[in-house]
Task: structure prediction
Amino acid sequence: MKYEIWDDHTHLVEKLGATPEEQIGKILKFADRVGISRLVLFMGTFEGTYNLSPEQLRRANDLILRAIKPYPDRVFGYVYLNPKHTQASLDEMNRCIRDGPMVGVKLLVAEYCNKPTLDPIIQRAAELKAPVLQHTWIKITGNLPDESTPMQLAELAARHPQAALICAHSGGDWEMGLRAIRPHPNVYADLCGGDPTSGYTEMAVREIGAERCLYGSDIGARSFSSQLSKVLGADIPESAKRLILGENLKRLLKPILETKGVKL
Result:
């Protein structure tokens, strides 16, 4: 392949198999077809709700632990947390990251990310060298309760400049989202989700720089190929495409991967 591609945003897909091992096996076959070498996996299940209890989160993370176990040098797990349960989240970070193979944190729709309840989690993630991927969206019809926006993530980033934060989906409304995170060099734009609209990647490179943009597929909800087209079809330099498709995520994860003994 012309590029080394690292996917920063993938999920298990239940219809691909009865077990997490079967599901990730199928996902990797699809990844091989389009030349994706490494991928980040998280969020094993919703169990009917976003606002998971500590017990539900543990079960969800156990599914990811099972999926990544056969592929320690190719599939990297992020621990799924609910900031409403601060101590349980810290305990789960220790179980899955400090004492386990996971290398990052995934936060979804459970608490607005600018609330102080997130501060201990973000501080601990920074200590562990683990990036934090926060779901963000700006919906014309109105966000879900506790669904964060890039503006709220920008507030969190200002309080924790030492932490590496990822603005998942760039807020959906990427024109607003990219401008919201622009002043904060510790925030990366995740380009996944949504249709492969012309101009998205070009604006991201122009507004925050190619060094802060990450390719992701959101596989399960989207496809590898549709999201690759956002980058491959963008009117940006080849050097920028290489950064977005793999070099940035590799650089971001390198410190924690080295502590885990992962071969790069």
User: Anything to note?
Assistant: The longest helix spans residues 238-260. The mean pLDDT is 96. Residues 5-260 form a domain with the TIM Barrel fold (CATH 3.20.20.140). The two ends are 17 Å apart (CA to CA).
